[in-house]
Design a protein that fits this description.
Blueprint: H1 14-25, H2 29-32, H3 34-41, H4 44-71, H5 78-85, H6 88-121, E1 130-134, E2 137-140, H7 141-158, H8 161-190, H9 193-201, E3 207-210, E4 214-217, H10 220-237, H11 243-246, H12 254-283, H13 286-290, H14 297-306, H15 310-342, H16 360-376, H17 379-407, H18 422-441, H19 443-454, H20 456-463
Antiparallel strand pairs: 1-2, 3-4
Helix pairs in contact: 1-8, 1-12, 1-15, 3-4, 3-10, 4-10, 4-12, 4-17, 4-18, 5-6, 5-17, 6-7, 6-15, 6-16, 6-17, 7-8, 7-15, 7-16, 8-12, 8-14, 8-15, 10-18, 14-15, 15-16, 17-18, 17-19, 18-19
Length: about 475
């Protein structure tokens, strides 16, 4: 079944790979998440540090993946790494979670974020515009808009990787320039020394914000819980960087370019994220960051910078950002189902490449399920527990580097994990601590994530092909 791998066209260079990483990572999170982080920890120092730590551990994970991407430069990425490190069951559980929640849930949520900001420009696109109602089910305009964007992007990507590549690169460059423009204008036109000094006056004094009672000092276990909860948002905003590994079969010189794309992409995004938050702290009082309406911190910042036109400018920026983000997610995700199908662990039709040399059936299956998740209205809840599944599989994949060093000591490793064994081990320790803290403090949501993942075990044994 693996001969299909050779039918992929290697049309993506280093710039395309890097733009896929950047474009998939930057969605709506950087415009919104800082509000919740500010409420959880209540200080400029901790707000900045959480974004910095999230970025650094993401870079560590990315450069660690470089070794695996150079060893297995083919479609499927993380799924392939888990299969080679462990077995088909672990790989299947990743693919199962990936299709059920991780990729499709993220596509749905990003699509809805697009529609929410589209409603800024055209009110009838609002989720308050109910088009159809029967019993508990309501169909609103925002859901229709989000589904339309998912279908449109799936169609574009079904017509060949070149179309998706051009769209991704152009939109991501626009997105980067827009964010850098927001940072520069914010720091030059709207920054105030008084706001900056007030925000940093008690930079490391931690407190939590509750709507009914206001700010209250926190420490000890409450601080640990607050940091863990805050990092869910920043880590989610920094996620999807591994998408380039899924399309390694279409990358030119993948042994070099996949790992380099991972490093460059995650570094660029971390730099932009930290700068953006420093701009927020120079323009907006911390209390206003924490209490921004609908958590739209970037809207508040843009109103300080651009006045009445701020909301319109930021709405257009976020629409471009989320559109490019979903293009990258849709392009990359289908390659995982394709590779699973080649192993007999997904619908057989997903192995087929169309005349444009892309897995069109897998793209449309992903489209249908992501659209269904849009209709449930449960996408925000999905994001609450998607992060713990993502972290668990990142931990397992990076552990796989240690396993493969023992299991395949003589394998060709064109690139070796930077800082091995210390940096990969540091990532495993930090990510494990976050997972444990989340299970303790957010069992009601994260527990469901783990259950969805584990529910794949009986499915695997009921559906796997018999070994000959």
């Amino acid at each position: 079944m693996h001969e299909n791998q050779e039918n992929f066209k290697r049309e993506l260079g280093l710039l395309d790979g890097t733009m896929l990483v950047v474009g998939s990572m930057i969605g709506s999170g950087i415009f919104i998440v800082s509000a919740d982080i500010a409420r959880q920890v209540g200080s400029a120092g901790w707000l900045t540090l959480i974004w910095l730590i999230s970025g650094l551990i993401t870079i560590i994970a990315a450069v660690s993946y470089g070794e695996l991407s150079a060893m297995f430069p083919k479609a499927g990425g993380q799924y392939v790494y888990l299969k080679e490190s462990y077995n088909k069951l672990i790989a299947f559980l990743y693919g199962w979670s990936f299709f059920a929640v991780i990729q499709t849930g993220t596509i749905a949520a990003v699509g809805v974020a697009f529609s929410k900001f589209a409603a800024y420009l055209y009110e009838p696109f609002s989720d308050e515009n109910i088009l159809f109602e029967i019993g508990f089910f309501q169909l609103n305009a925002a859901q229709i808009v989000s589904i339309f964007t998912i279908i449109l992007l799936t169609f574009i990507n079904s017509r060949g990787v070149k179309n998706g590549k051009i769209l991704q690169t152009v939109l991501t460059i626009i997105k980067i320039l827009s964010l850098l423009g927001l940072i520069v204008f914010g720091l030059t036109l709207a920054a105030k020394a008084s706001v900056w000094n007030d925000n940093w006056a008690n930079a490391w004094e931690t407190s939590a914000y509750v709507k009914e009672t206001g700010w209250a000092p926190i420490g000890g276990s409450a601080l640990i819980a607050g940091i863990a909860a805050a990092m869910v948002g920043s880590l989610f905003s920094s996620d999807a960087w591994n998408g380039v590994t899924f399309i390694a079969g279409e990358i030119k010189n993948p042994k070099r370019n996949v790992g380099l794309s991972l490093f460059l992409g995650t570094s660029i995004v971390t730099f932009i994220y930290v700068l953006t938050n420093l701009m927020y702290l120079a323009v907006i009082p911390l209390n206003e960051i924490a209490t921004a309406k609908s958590d739209r911190v970037a809207v508040v910042a843009s109103q300080y910078i651009f006045g009445d036109y701020g909301a319109i400018i930021i709405a257009i920026m976020i629409m471009i950002s989320t559109f490019a983000c979903n293009n990258g997610l849709i392009m990359a995700g289908a390659r995982v189902y394709y590779t699973m199908a080649n192993d007999g662990l997904f619908f057989k039709k997903a192995t087929a490449l169309n005349k444009f040399s892309v897995p069109a059936w897998a793209l449309w299956a992903q489209c249908i399920w992501a659209s269904a998740l849009c209709l449930t209205g449960k996408y925000n809840a999905l994001l609450d527990f998607v992060m713990i599944i993502v972290l668990i599989f990142y931990i397992l994949t990076i552990c796989g580097i240690f396993i493969l060093r023992k299991k395949m000591p003589n394998a060709d490793r064109p690139y070796k994990a930077f800082g091995y064994p210390f940096l990969p081990l540091l990532y495993i320790i930090i990510a494990s601590a976050i997972c444990i803290s989340l299970l303790i403090t957010k069992l009601s949501t994260c527990g469901w994530g783990v259950l969805i993942m584990l529910s794949g075990i009986p499915v695997y044994y009921l559906t796997k092909p018999k070994e000959s």
